[in-house]
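Deliverable D2.4 — example input (structure tokens):
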């Protein structure tokens, strides 16, 4: 009896893992603050719950399809060997059925509880993530995460449209913020797992380009990101709290990016040895990756607090 319960618990855990909960957390961090900015205050609790729940199901369905498609390379990469389709916790057919069903439920749920525009945006993000990123770009182009990252930026559009029923320039800039945040965020992780991606023959930028060139790209995207976060302030009518936060947080992000780039200096590598330099670069890249998560959380948190204070909450 206990074995049966454990088996059921393990299966439930496998289905949850299939949706990549940690990625969904990042998507939701951007959705609720966007709704607060669109409302200029706190939207109805019911609307926030429905938007978050529908967005979670839509993102979870897309992530599950991604795992279904990538199960062959997940077996090769050390970072992904524990995923449910690799361990045999569930069959590929069960995973695909679950993914499609979850996506269909998400569309109907968002349509009936939020609005049609939000539902269409959620499903469009899923289709883009699956067909453009997973099936096309991921294994064929170094631009995979740059273009494919657009799917992860859609929750800002969903959050805005759930409140207003429309889109305008403010959510477009929020979309661009996440779009330009994604490459430095993911390339930093890819530097750490460079060997994994090389073994799986996935052309992530750090695999096919030098670490110096990759670090230069990270810095370039970080500077574009910083400029967009500042530009969002006048476009969306944000206050001093948000603007100050955007400037300071962007400055810290840029400092991490510059530090990573400076570590590619040949003289520094010569002083410590190639092996030591490689270890230090990967450690610095992971610090940048960790900060990128903190950064986006604090930035959107400041955005929400700014609007709540200005609305008298």
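Example output (designed residues):
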């Amino acid at each position: 009896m206990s074995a049966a319960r454990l088996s059921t618990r393990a299966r439930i855990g496998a289905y949850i893992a299939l949706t990549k909960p940690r990625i969904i957390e990042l998507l939701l961090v951007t959705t609720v603050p966007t709704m607060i900015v669109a409302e200029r205050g706190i939207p109805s609790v019911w609307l926030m719950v429905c938007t978050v729940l529908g967005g979670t199901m839509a993102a979870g369905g897309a992530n599950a399809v991604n795992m279904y498609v990538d199960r062959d390379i997940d077996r090769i990469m050390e970072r992904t060997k524990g995923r449910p389709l690799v361990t045999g916790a569930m069959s590929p057919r069960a995973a695909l059925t679950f993914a499609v069903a979850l996506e269909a439920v998400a569309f109907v749920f968002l349509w009936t509880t939020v609005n049609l525009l939000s539902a269409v945006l959620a499903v469009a993000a899923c289709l883009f993530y699956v067909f453009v990123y997973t099936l096309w770009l991921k294994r064929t182009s170094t631009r995979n995460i740059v273009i494919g990252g657009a799917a992860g930026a859609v929750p800002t559009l969903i959050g805005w449209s759930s409140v207003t029923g429309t889109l305008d320039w403010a959510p477009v800039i929020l979309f661009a913020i996440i779009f330009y945040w994604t490459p430095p965020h993911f390339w930093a992780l890819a530097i750490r797992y460079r060997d994994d991606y090389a073994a799986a023959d996935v052309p992530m930028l750090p695999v096919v380009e030098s670490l110096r060139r990759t670090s230069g790209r990270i810095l370039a995207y970080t500077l574009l990101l910083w400029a967009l976060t500042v530009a969002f302030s006048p476009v969306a009518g944000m206050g001093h709290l948000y603007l100050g936060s955007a400037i300071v947080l962007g400055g810290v992000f840029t400092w991490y990016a510059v530090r990573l780039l400076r570590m590619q200096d040949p003289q520094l590598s010569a002083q410590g040895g190639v092996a030591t330099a490689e270890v230090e670069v990967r450690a610095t890249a992971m610090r940048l990756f960790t900060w990128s998560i903190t950064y986006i959380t604090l930035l959107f948190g400041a955005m929400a607090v700014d609007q709540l204070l200005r609305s008298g909450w």
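The chain has two domains: 12-165, 168-313.
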